[in-house]
Amino acid sequence: MQPLIDHARSFGRRPEDFASLAQGQSPQVLFVTCSDSRVVPALITGARPGELFELRTAGNIVPPYVSGRPTSEAATVEYAVDVLGVTEIVVCGHSHCGAVGALVRGEDLTAVPAVRDWLAQAETPSEAPDDDPAVAEAVQNHVLAQLLRLRAYPCVRRSLTAGQLRLHGWYYEVHTGAVRAHSPDTDSFEAL
């Protein structure tokens, strides 16, 4: 913890570097990814403060939209699209994902009921080998399922129809740093 504290102490020593951030934010991208500590959106994309609006959830799960039952995730998506006017949404899954791995392997999660119930919202990735420690194919299928879920959010549907929003599926390899993007033309994840 001490290295983090030391960095935080020295981080704000040049307030002039941050003064413009007080004027507000206007990110163009909503970046939906896992809470995993190995996935750092700004590091992956090179984004500076104010350039990414982030939604981080266990397993980068986008819960189904249910009118009248707000969730933090739905509020974040709606705010990003309708208030901030993001023009791109990236759903980024990653290799060695514990959440997707637990689904693929059918792990017993009774000792962690909140995790179990959260993961129950995800569809179990189909036809994915359970002996792949990176769970690559399962994570990629999971990313595509989350993109489909996003399409059902009213704000996303409206913006897509109006041509004001684009959706992207990414897969990040934590063991190499490589990023692959889903290509609708080939229905595969290809190097950026």
Automatic annotation (TrEMBL):
What positions belong to coiled-coil segments?
A: none
Please name the taxonomic classification of the source.
Bacteria, Bacillati, Actinomycetota, Actinomycetes, Kitasatosporales
The reaction(s) this protein catalyses: hydrogencarbonate + H(+) = CO2 + H2O
User: PANTHER family this protein is in?
Assistant: CARBONIC ANHYDRASE
Keywords, A to Z, come to:
Lyase, Metal-binding, Zinc
What name has this protein been given in UniProt? Carbonic anhydrase
Give a yes or no for keyword Zinc-finger in this entry.
Answer: no
- Similarity comment: Belongs to the beta-class carbonic anhydrase family.
Q: What's the top EC group for this one?
A: lyase
InterPro entries hit by this protein: Carbonic_anhydrase (IPR001765), Carbonic_anhydrase_CS (IPR015892), Carbonic_anhydrase_sf (IPR036874)
Entry annotated with the keyword Lyase: yes
Q: What does this protein do?
A: Reversible hydration of carbon dioxide.
Q: Tell me the cofactors it needs.
A: Zn(2+)
Q: What Enzyme Commission number(s) apply to this enzyme?
A: 4.2.1.1
